[in-house]
Each structure stands twice: as structure tokens, then as C-alpha cells.
Design a protein that fits this description.
The chain is of the alpha/beta class. It is built from 9 helices and 7 strands; from the N terminus they run βαβαββαβαααβαααβ. It has a 7-stranded mixed β-sheet, sandwiched between helices. α4 runs parallel beside α7.
Length: about 240
């Protein structure tokens, strides 16, 4: 399940791409197995999540060999990255900034490791679906690793612009996931045992594997209205 549209990043063979906050590696794996060979690097604060991402590279046959294709992983703090200045052509930061205490520091690090002509893709939970989650459940935001802030679209854009970026595209994603999280939050204390939550999760898993035309069309139709995530794409300002 990809939140970032990799086609919007103008990937070219041999580019170095950082998946910052890679989690279990969904975007990292898509980069590695993608049609355009790139050097993909995943970084996550959780060593355990990075291990899961590493194991994922053995789940499918390897892609065609190419000197322009590789993958690496690092356990790292997004606010203090262990990478050299201007070392990446592209940076993906998907569903990360809502978890951190200092998103400005993370954006500053993204600018530091990004090449002058680099591009950045950032996604965060959309304001109003997230606001409903917060209203329905305190545990949703107070559980360790939970969401500590809500971004409005304009606020995220201003923060990125202050860091030295200029937005060139925006879209929304995962409309069919919004009701799932509302159910989770409404039934927070018994969500793991809830038949309703389990049934909706099975539907989402079925949709992910089968991708029928009906649900793809429905998701695309509803995304501008109730997409769970907002996705923005940025380029570096000339003065940055």
C-alpha cells in the first residue's frame, strides 16, 4: 500500500533515494523492485521495524541486476541523520512528521541531505479525518508511538517552505481507510477483539491484494473528500 506516487518524483537510474521513517519498508521495497533502478536507503528510529523491512527483501525474487540498483537500511533519528550533506537525489517522508516532537528539525535534516536539485515527497494524516480520531479516542494519540500533532494542509506547506522547499503537487490518499480508523478509535478498548473492526480490516486486505476496479474507482472518487492522508511534493527553492 503506497501513499507516495513514485511516478511524481521523476526517478532516474542510479539516483540515491532516502525513505525516511521507512517503517516496515513499503516504499523502500517499491523503490527496490521498481522499474527504474535506484539506490534506495531506508532509515527508521525503530531497529525492530528496520529488521522487518530487511526481511522483506527476501520475500520476492530479486529484481534484474543493475549497477544502478541497491538497497540499504539504517536505524536513525530523523532529526539527526547519519548521512552526509547533499547525499540524496530524492527523499520520501511518509507518515512521519505527525509522530515527532520537532518536525522543523526533521525538515531541516531533509534539506541538509538533499541535493540542490532534489525532490521531496511528504505525507501526513489529513486534518479533519485525524481530528475525528482524536475526538473518539484519547489512546489513539497517547499510546507510545502515537500521533502527537495534527497538520492542516496550509500549515504543512508553510513549514516546508520555511525549510527551503516549494510545493509543486498535492493529492490525497486512502479514503477507504478513514472509516477503518474511525471504527478503531470508537472501539479503542476492544478493537482487537471487535468483529466489526476485523471485518473491515479483512476488506482492506482483500482490496489491497485484488485491487478491483470498483474499489479503485471509489477510492479515487472519495480521496479529495475524505482521503486519510494528504501528500505533498516539493522541490528545493533556488535560494535554499
Amino acid at each position: 500500500m503506497l501513499t507516495i506516487e513514485l511516478s511524481a518524483l521523476d526517478l532516474r537510474p542510479g539516483m540515491r533515494v532516502l525513505d525516511l521513517g521507512c517503517g516496515r519498508g513499503r516504499h523502500l521495497h517499491a523503490l527496490y523492485w521498481g522499474e527504474t533502478p535506484v539506490h534506495a536507503v531506508g532509515a527508521d528510529l525503530s531497529f525492530g521495524e528496520a529488521l522487518v523491512a530487511a526481511h522483506g527483501f527476501f520475500s520476492l525474487p530479486p529484481p534484474p541486476e543493475s549497477p544502478d540498483r541497491s538497497a540499504a537500511l539504517s536505524a536513525a533519528d530523523a532529526g539527526r541523520l547519519p548521512f552526509a550533506d547533499a547525499s540524496f537525489d530524492r527523499v520520501i517522508c511518509s507518515e512521519v512528521l505527525e509522530h515527532v516532537d520537532d518536525p522543523e528539525a526533521v525538515l531541516a535534516e531533509i534539506i541538509r541531505v538533499l541535493k540542490p536539485d532534489g525532490l521531496v515527497a511528504v505525507s501526513v494524516p489529513r486534518w479533519w479525518p485525524e481530528k475525528i480520531c482524536w475526538a473518539l479516542s484519547e489512546g489513539y494519540r497517547t499510546t507510545p508511538g502515537g500521533h502527537v500533532r495534527i497538520f492542516r494542509d496550509a500549515g504543512l506547506r508553510r513549514a516546508a517552505e520555511r525549510a527551503g522547499l516549494r510545493r509543486y503537487r498535492r493529492h490525497w490518499a486512502h479514503a477507504l481507510h478513514s472509516p477503518y480508523w474511525w471504527l478503531q478509535c470508537a472501539l479503542w478498548r476492544r478493537r482487537e477483539g471487535s468483529r466489526l473492526v476485523s471485518a473491515y480490516r479483512r476488506f482492506l486486505e482483500w482490496d489491497l491484494m485484488r485491487r478491483p476496479l470498483l474499489t479503485r474507482a471509489l477510492d479515487a472518487l472519495l480521496n479529495p473528500l475524505m482521503g486519510k492522508s494528504v501528500v505533498m511534493y516539493f522541490e528545493r527553492k533556488e535560494s535554499a
